[in-house]
Amino acid sequence: MKKCLPLLAAFFFSNAVVAQESQAFHATMDGKSAIELQKLFPSEVEILKTTDNQSAVFLTEKAAQHLHKNILTHGPGYVYQQDAETALDVLSKKTDNNQKLLNLTITENDWVNHSISKVNAENIKNHIMTLQAYGTRRHDNPKGKQAALDLKTKWENMITASGRTDISVSIFNHNATPMPSVILKINGATTPNQSVIIGGHLDSISFSGQAPGADDNASGIASITEMLRVLLDINFKPQRTIEIMAYSAEEVGLVGSKDIAQKYASENKDVLAYVQFDMTNYKGSAKDVYLTTDSYNSNDLNLFLVELMEHYNKTGAHTFTYGNTICNYGCSDHFSWAQKGYNAAFPFEASFDDSNPYIHSSQDLISVSGSTATHAAKFAKLGLEFLIEAAKSSQAYMAVQTTKTNDFKVVVDKKILKLINFKTDITSIKIIDASGKIVKEVVNPKSDFISLEHLKEAYYLCVIEDNNGKISTTKFINQ
Ligand SMILES: [Zn+2]
Fold it and tell me: pTM of the full predicted structure?
C-alpha cells in the first residue's frame, strides 16, 4: 500500500492541493473515470484539465490503486506521466499520425500451417510455472528486475541454440523504475526498417500478499516465448523485422511500453502493426479469443486478425472461436502504441466481464487459470499467424508452394458487392465488420451480387465457403 515509483518521491507533496499522507503523481486517464474517482477521493484527486474525455490528473497512490482495483477490471486505467507539463501535453497533442492503411494479405499458408502445428501448450505451462515461482515480479522489487534479466538470458539461449545470427536481444532501461524491459529483434531480410511487433508485460502486482501473476501476465510472456520458439524451430526468416517485447511496470501506468513507444515514435520508426498479449490462459467466456474494440484500437488490424482466424482457425485441428469486448482507457500496453498513432490490437482471454477474477492477488496461480495452458496455446497460434503473414517469409517454403489461397475476387462499387468467378458450389457468403460481427450472411447464393446499401462506409471482410468446406477471405471497403 505504501509503495510507489521511486522517482515519485521527487514529486511528493509537490502540489499543495493534493498533499495527503500518501504519495502523489501525475497521470492521464479517461475523463469520466477521473470525475468518478474525484468524487470518491475529493482531496486526493485533482483534475488539471479535460479534453475530448481525456483528463490530466494529479492523484495519490491510494486513489490510483482504487482505480486499478475497483473501477476497472484489468489494467491500471491511467497512464503515468512524469510531471504536469507532460500530462497536459498529452491532452493538447492530437494522436501522432503514423497510422497507415493496412494492406495485409494472407499468402503464407504453408509456413503458417506448419508453425501452428508446432505450438506446444506444455512449453507455455512450464514457462508460466517458472514465472509464477518468483512469487512477485513487481517492478520495484528486485525480483522484477531479476525476472527481466532471466528472460533475456532465456531468449538468448534459444537464439544461440538455433544458430541464427540475424536475431538479437537487448535491455531497455527506464527512468521511473529499476526494472528494465526486454526487446528481441529478428531482422527483416528485405525491409529491415519496417517492423511488426508483439509484446506483453512481465511485471506483476498484488493488492493482497504475493504477486505470482500466472495469468497476468506470465501467460502472455509464455505465449510470446512459445511463438519465438516455433519461429526458430521452423527457421522462419521474415522480410520485415519482427520484434518481441516484454515490458516493465505496466501495472503502475504502462511505464515500460510508454517509454518504448515514445522512443520509436520520436525516431520515426516504421511500425506496421502492434499486437498485445496480456492474459491468455483463463477461459472465462463461451468463445475463445476476444478482440478489444476500444476506439483507440485499429479497426484495420482487428479486421486482419478476424481474417486470420476465419482463414486458419475455422475448421480442423486448430479451430477456435472469437468475439469482441471493451477494455477501457489505458488498459494495457497496446494503448501506448495507439497513443503514438501506430496500428494496435489486443486479443484477450475472455469477455472483460468474465475475465480472470483472481488477478492482482496471491491467487493468480496457474492452478486457478488453467493448468494445461491449452487456452494460451490458441493465442500463440494467432500470434504466429499474425507475425508470419504481417512480416512475410523471405524464403520459399520447402521450395514448393502447395496451397493456393484466394479463389475469389470481390469488387465493391456503389455499395454493391460483385463476385468475380462466381460458382454455384458456394454455400455461404459472410460479411464481417472490424469487431468480428457478421453483418450480412447469404446462404447458397443464387446470384453474384450482394447489396450492401445498409452498411456504413468502412472496411469489411468477405468470407466465402464452398461445399468442400474451403474458405476464401478478402477485405474490402464498402463505398
Ligand atoms: Zn496485465
Answer: 0.85
